[in-house]
Design brief:
Blueprint lengths: L3 H5 L14 E2 L49 H29 L4 H18 L8 E3 L2 E6 L2 E6 L7 E6 L9 E7 L5 E7 L6 E7 L5 E16 L2 E8 L2 E9 L5 E7 L6 E6 L5 E7 L4 E7 L8 E4 L7 E6 L2 E6 L8 E6 L9 E5 L4 E8 L3 E8 L2 E8 L5 E5 L6 E4 L9 E8 L2 E9 L4 E5 L10 E9 L5 E9 L10 E4 L14 H8 L3 E5 L9 H5 L6 H17 L8 E6 L2 H11 L6 E5 L5 H5 L7 H8 L6 H10 L12 E7 L7 H21 L10 E6 L9 H6 L1
Length: about 725
């Protein structure tokens, strides 16, 4: 969860670890058809997972994990818990029975879809070799739950197995993150199962016979400060507040280095690209504080860069004894690159290096020895800004117009002269590109030719919202399609935490295009597509603006002839369920169906329970209804669960997870029950010709967790 992309955006609900000096990059399990394989390249992912590091809006830290309210009386509490558990079991059993009754109806359809998706998956993920990381003559890579070591000059394919999840009894886990110590004597690995939020860190001593030296439970992030000193953070109840140091010297010992006292803040660690400093980053959703550990003296106390200042986010890189600071400090409150001497790092000494233009989204940032690259998005188009620290110049490079997503590759050596990355869109498989600092040009890498999608048209629109704000929409459809107003339309929305809609390649999106569907992505306020101000204009007391944006987008699509209400479906995941569920209450006539994955649908009740682990830090996104009556009324005005009423609803399909710690299953069960009752009440009260009763279906997955599933699970879903 390190790397600048974290600070800049974060699922959609996924996990992506970006590299520093020696990181193998973790992604989703899709490219190699293995039992449980999280490999190092994101091409062909069925579900991209993004996690966020320093100063970021943590995309997946959504809500809470435990149900029940705090009651002072132990007797009352015991009775309440028993009653709640019984209600939960009864609701779950009832929904499982309904699912078992209705799911056979869809078997022929799901069989056809599964076969088609597998065909597309095999077609577009043929370049499935894991990315490799080179240290001198040694090359490390990971496949099928194993970590291998080979020699760079070995053409015969000889490899040594350093680690296997099966051999060490972790058969149900996948490899999430790998860190090799600078002298390659040690390797730290984090292992995580799909049904758990917490990971286990295994530290191995390498050599002719690799051996396990330490196993640390509940670890979130970790980095080698030196060849035998590892720093790591621990996670408990979805929170990271402690940083530890473990030394594998002659006197092996573990020491607590840092503790965060504020429940709104989340702690992780990052290693600067030149390995000079390890940073301890304490971040809320709006404020940062960074401490430096000098890797030349890892046992000394961390030094504060700048005390936390409300509303100021910052992240640290290092070059030539100067700190390079990516921050929101100053006006306007968008990201800027600044610098300051290491010896005098407070914000009074920060000097501006580069400021982003208005309505520009900083997607990613990579530091090199003489340059840095900013991956930017403006009006839906992607481009690079290359900042030279030597010539003090800024070069701007446009990227292909079809591209919607960046994927930065690992660059272990910060002195490299080339930056590698991938571009994709929901319907375009990833293509690899390289930017050469010396030649100042962009090169498309054609290791293996990716089949070109020639029959898909991309359109970018602007919808005028209720307050006249222009809201971007990205539309994909088959160029050969005629009478688009008769074609089915799938609308996507998120609009929270400053996170962009996930627009990476997915086989199911391409399948829909080939079958005549129209895909629309509504970049509403609350997300981050137009920078930090776009998020700010759609959170807390501005949440309704996101709802107005979504309505305006759908109405414009219909007005321009992209489908019509009776052929329109709306899709959302996690916090996107707030706007989707709200639209379902206010304007159900605009859509015929709604598909939700692990949806957040009861904002009010969740934000009233401060004993839940994430509620306090979530107040910066949703507000504090306990202390602000206006906030309570405002949340109640749009909360999906609170506003269900008897009316003609669209059909609804919801996927939920029994082990989801962020969206409690009980809340989803109660939402489905209330929604179904309202739809049936309406149907029984009216007898107008043409009335229909919607299908409201809940599929509760026993495996998987919050929007985080393997290729096999996502295929089934």
């Amino acid at each position: 969860c390190v790397g600048l992309r974290n600070i800049l955006q974060g699922l959609n609900c996924s996990v992506k670890y970006y590299s520093s000096i020696n990181h193998l990059q973790t992604t989703c399990p899709c490219k190699i058809k293995a039992k449980k394989c999280h490999i190092l390249n994101c091409s062909g992912c069925a579900c991209t997972r993004k996690t966020a590091p320093p100063g970021s809006i943590l995309p997946w830290r959504f809500f809470s994990c435990k149900e029940g309210t705090r009651i002072s009386s132990k007797k009352k509490q015991s009775t309440s818990v028993v009653t709640s558990e019984l209600l939960h079991k009864n609701l779950l059993k009832s929904e499982q029975e309904k699912w078992n009754d209705i799911s056979p109806i869809y078997k022929p359809m799901t069989k056809r879809i599964k076969e088609k998706l597998e065909e597309l998956h095999n077609k577009y993920t043929f370049n499935s070799e894991s990315p490799k990381m080179r240290f001198g003559e040694n090359v490390y890579f990971e496949e099928n739950g194993c970590i291998f070591l080979s020699k760079a000059d070995d053409d015969e394919g000889n490899v040594d197995i350093l680690f296997s999840t099966d051999d060490l009894g972790f058969s149900d886990a996948f490899i999430q993150r790998i860190r090799i110590s600078p002298d390659q004597r040690y390797m730290a690995i984090s292992l995580k199962s799909e049904s758990s939020e917490e990971a286990t860190c295994v530290i191995m001593k390498l050599g002719d016979f690799p051996v396990v030296k330490k196993v640390i439970p509940s670890v979130f992030s970790f980095e080698w400060a030196t060849s035998d000193v590892l720093y790591y953070t621990t996670q408990k109840n979805l929170k990271c507040q402690n940083v530890f140091m473990i030394a594998f010297t002659n006197q092996k010992h573990t020491k607590l280095v840092y503790t965060e006292q504020d429940a709104r803040f989340f702690v992780d660690i990052y290693l600067t690209k030149d390995r000079r400093f390890l940073t301890i980053n304490s971040n809320s959703k709006t404020t940062s504080e960074v401490w430096l550990v000098d890797c030349r003296n890892p046992f000394e106390l961390p030094a504060l860069v700048q005390a936390r200042t409300k509303g100021v986010i910052y992240h640290i890189e290092h070059r030539n004894n100067e700190l390079y600071i990516l921050t929101t400090y100053g006006e306007p409150a968008e990201y800027k690159l600044m610098k300051a001497p290491v010896a005098s790092s407070s914000k009074e000494n920060w000097q501006l290096v580069y400021a982003l233009e208005k309505k520009t989204k900083l997607v990613d940032f990579e530091m090199f020895s003489d340059d840095c690259i900013m991956f930017l998005k403006n009006a839906g188009h992607l481009y690079l800004n290359v900042i030279s620290f030597v010539s003090h110049s800024v070069r701007s490079i446009k990227l292909p117009t079809w591209a919607c997503e960046f994927e930065l590759e690992s660059h272990p050596e910060h002195t490299t002269s080339t930056c590698y990355f991938q571009l994709s869109s929901p319907v375009h498989p990833p293509k690899r590109f390289a930017y050469s600092f010396k030649e100042n040009n962009l090169i498309e890498q054609a290791v293996q030719e990716v089949p070109i999608i020639t029959n898909c048209h991309t359109t970018r629109l602007l919808a005028k919202s209720k307050d006249e704000t222009l809201v971007p929409i990205t539309v994909f459809h088959n160029m050969n399609s005629k009478e688009l107003h008769r074609k089915p339309l799938l609308v996507h929305v998120y609009g929270a935490y400053g996170i962009d809609l996930n627009m990476s390649f997915k086989e199911e999106k391409l399948m829909l295009i080939e079958e005549g569907w129209i895909l629309a992505y509504c970049h509403v306020r609350g997300g981050g597509e137009l920078g930090l101000s776009w998020h700010k204009d759609g959170c807390q007391h501005n949440k309704l603006k996101g709802l107005h944006d979504l309505k305006a987008c759908i109405m414009l699509l219909h007005k321009l002839g992209f489908s019509q209400p009776k052929h329109t479906a709306l899709a959302a995941a996690s916090a996107g369920g707030v706007l989707a569920g709200a639209l379902c209450n206010t304007d159900p006539e605009l859509i015929r169906a709604m598909v939700l994955q692990a949806p957040f649908v009861d904002v009010l009740n969740t934000m009233m329970k401060t004993h839940l682990p994430l509620t306090i830090e979530e107040q910066e996104e949703w507000g504090n209804p306990l202390e602000d009556e206006k906030c309570m009324k405002y949340i109640k005005s749009y909360c999906p669960y609170q506003n269900i009423k008897p009316q003609c609803y669209p059909s609804v399909f919801i996927t939920a997870y029994e082990n989801d710690q962020r969206i409690p299953l009980t809340g989803v069960l109660q939402y489905v029950q209330k929604l179904r009752k309202a739809a049936l009440d309406h149907a029984s009260r009216t007898s107008k010709k043409g009335n229909w009763t919607p299908n409201i279906i809940l599929d509760v997955q026993a495996n998987g967790s919050h929007c985080d599933s393997s290729w096999e699970h996502s295929l089934s879903e």
